Amino acid sequence: MIRPARPDDAPFIARIILSSQRGPLPRGWCDIALGLGEPECLAFIERLAVARARSWYHVDHFLVAEVDGVPAAALCAMPASGTLVAARAAIAEVAAESGIDAASIGERGAYARNCWVQRGDGDWLIEHVATDAAFRGRGLVQALIGNAPAERCYTKAGFVFAEERRDAAFEALTGAPGFRRFARAM
After folding, report:
1. What pTM was estimated for this model as a whole?
2. Which of helix, strand or coil describes residue 157?
3. 27 and 90 Cβ atoms separated by less than 8 Å
4. C-alpha count within 13 angstroms, C-beta hemisphere, residue 113
5. CATH number at residue 76
């Protein structure tokens, strides 16, 4: 079953976000930018998922695929315009509530700026796509809609490779050369 995410899905959404940012690598943007251990990272992301500021981390923008009533996969889909401003606002909100310096998060996460793909006003963004490890290999992401398995899913859903942004500093921190963008006319 595919359904909109709910506030009680926040712990699951946090795991999906962290997993999608990492892909096949040991660390992703939240690991690096937050500079926290995994439990603390997940707690921070869980708070982003229900923050007053609604960003691409918020449950309002997620669809969840369930298997036998258990959340198994999810993705965020939203208009691309204003995504960075909204994400910064949500991070600032949760950082302030957590006693964490938002400016430090921005500084540690700045490595990704050179790989950020710009989007137009009419564009939509699909982000934070992942399947819980216990449910992989069942085609759940395909039902909802970087790495080779994700790119195969996007291609099956009619998306085509549009551009790639690479940066040496990004690669040094993450092990991945940058971001690849896939697009599809709607």
Report:
1. 0.82
2. coil
3. no
4. 6
5. 3.40.630.30
Over 80: is that where the pLDDT of 178 sits? no
> Is residue 145 classed as helix, strand or coil in its secondary structure?
coil
Q: Which domain holds residue 102?
A: 2-183
Euclidean distance between CA atoms 179 and 164, whole angstroms: 6
Please name the helix (run of DSSP H) or strand (run of DSSP E) that holds residue 127, with its range, or none.
strand 124-131
Q: How many domains does the chain have?
A: 1
186: number of Cβ within 10 Å: 7
Rounded Cα distance between 75 and 61, Å, is: 8
- Rounded Cα gap, residues 71 and 74, in angstroms: 8
What is the widest separation between alpha-carbon atoms in the chain? 43
Tokens of 153: 């899913």
CB-based burial, 107-128: b 16+ in 10 Å, e otherwise? eebebbeebebebeeeeebbbb
3-state class (DSSP) for residue 2: strand
CA distances from 32 to 26, 57, 110, 186 (A): 11, 16, 10, 34
Amino acid letter, residue 148:
A
Sign of CA pseudo-dihedral 23, 61, 162, 184: positive
CA distance 42 to 21: 12
Q: How confident is the model at residue 31 (pLDDT cuts 50, 70, 90)?
A: very high
Single-letter code of the amino acid located at 83: T
